[in-house]
Amino acid sequence: MKLYDFDGMFDEKLAGYIKKNSDKHSESEWEDLIPALYEKFGDTKIKSLGMSPNEYYASMSDADLIKCLRAHLKQGIPVSEYLCNAIESRNADELLIPLLSGTDDEVRYAMSLLGASKAALEEYMRLLAQSEDEDLLNTCADNVKPYADEVKEQALELYGKGVHREYMLEILSRCVIKDDRIFDILLKEFRSDDENLPIHAGYLAAYGDERALEYLLQKIDEDGISYIEYQELKYAIESLGGSYDKSRDFSEDPAYLAIKAHSENEVDIFGQFGIKPDDVQ
């Protein structure tokens, strides 16, 4: 299988085009134009190949596309969007899943191409249990959350073992089928971890169990909570159908002061042009 650096070919063509037309477009116009040129290049016939990049990948089987991706990564040849788009257009999840046990680059590309694939849940949970890479863990959690109910027992087990507990909480909070074990865990974390109060309030809001309202209302009424904590608690309360209208004074809170100063600066800028802040959507 011959590998082609289509991105390198495009960059070479682009450099020549920009040189000839540099005075025809502003910098911002070039930023908008380049993606369109790249897309057009995908349908441009390459003389040495006898077909366009998109036609080249369209002619391959699903298995050959995956082999091509792995070969590009192994040999350090840039992976073009044309190849990625071709893979995404196929039903190739089962062929991509083995890459989740491969090199770092293979894992990264496989996760990007698979996305929230139900077929990849087992591998995603394995990575969540074993990896220490924050970017990878974040992506795994995002891909698993739509299927939270299906991985609930695994997430509960890993939480119980102390494995990446915050990621397990994030997943468990997205479960639709209510389970007292989950509610008790989310509530315990909310009540015991003041350093991460906004995050755990968000988990209770996401889980959607109205029994949490009592505890959220108690917490928001405490003296000493910050403006950021207040905002997150208020959002969680409202998302569960409650309300909190008591006036609070955050005039000495650093976050409140920073937001207020930013808001006032915007007012000054808009005022120079005779625009009222309320007019800005």
Low-confidence region ranges: 272-281
Cα shape: flat
| Rg computed from alpha carbons, rounded to a whole number of angstroms | 26 Å
Q: Count of helices?
A: 16
Describe the protein.
This protein is mostly helical and 281 residues long. The chain is built from 16 helices and no strands. Helix 14 (213-220) runs antiparallel to helix 15 (227-239). The chain starts with 5 loop residues before the first helix and ends in a 9-residue tail after the last helix. The relative contact order is 0.05. Residues 272-281 have low confidence and may be disordered.
Feature tags:
281 residues; mainly alpha; 16 helices; 63% helix; disordered C terminus
Q: Can you lay out the helices and strands and say which pair or pack?
A:
Blueprint: H1 6-21, H2 27-41, H3 53-58, H4 62-75, H5 81-88, H6 93-96, H7 104-114, H8 121-130, H9 134-144, H10 152-160, H11 165-172, H12 180-192, H13 197-207, H14 213-220, H15 227-239, H16 254-272
Helix pairs in contact: 4-5, 8-9, 9-11, 10-11, 12-13, 13-15, 14-15
